[in-house]
Amino acid sequence: MNRVLATLVPLAALATASGCRLAPPPESTPSYEAAPDPNERFAVKREAAPLQQQAKTTLLEENEKLRDMVGRTLSEKRAVERELEKSRITAEDLGDRSTQQQDAIQALTDQVQGLTERLATAERRADTLEKERKALAEMFAAEKRQRLAFEKEILEREIAERTFAKDRK
Fold first, then answer.
1. By CB neighbour count within 10 A (0-12 exposed, 13-18 middle, 19+ buried), where does 12 fall?
2. Which of 18, 112, 93, 114 is nearest to 59 (CA)?
3. How many contiguous H segments (helices) and E segments (strands) does the chain have?
């Protein structure tokens, strides 16, 4: 009997929740056992009504819990989607900034390369100018030595002429 009730309770609860009604069990079943006591049959019906009500209440409570869970899940889903969208926007922004920084780095690299080439050119020019300065300094020193030697020679001639001229007088 308990076994029959155990299978009827979920069926009754499902049927009640969905608005269906179960067909009543057949009135008489051929059996070789003794006929069931009519009072026992009514006892099952009296027991089944509170069980059906309890199953209905349980189903409604579970349905309410499931609705709450679905509502929370949808709310969480929307929050996750918002966070995902924020993350996507942030990723795009970071990608744009990264591209800008890479462009700036490339521009600076080109600028450094240009300045390095200009520096190398300036260093070569400085080396050339230094060599020319040394050559001019040597030429100037040689010319000065020649001028001093020439002036010395002129002074020596003048002294010799004056001395010679004094001696002649």
1. buried
2. 18
3. 2, 0
Residues comprising the chain, all counted = 169
DSSP character at residue 32: S
* 32-70 confidence digits (pLDDT tens): 555 555 555 544 455 667 778 888 888 899 999 999 999
Residue with tokens 């010319």: 143
Q: Distance between CA 68 and CA 74 in Å, rounded? A: 10
DSSP 25: P
Q: Which residue reads 């591209």 in tokens?
A: 99
Query: Rounded CA gap, 55 and 63, in Å?
Result: 12
Q: What share of the chain is helix, strand, coil (3-state, %, to 5)?
A: 90, 0, 10
For 19-57, letters b (16+ CB in 10 Å) and e give eeeeeeeeeeeeeeeeeeeeeeeeebeeebeebbeebee
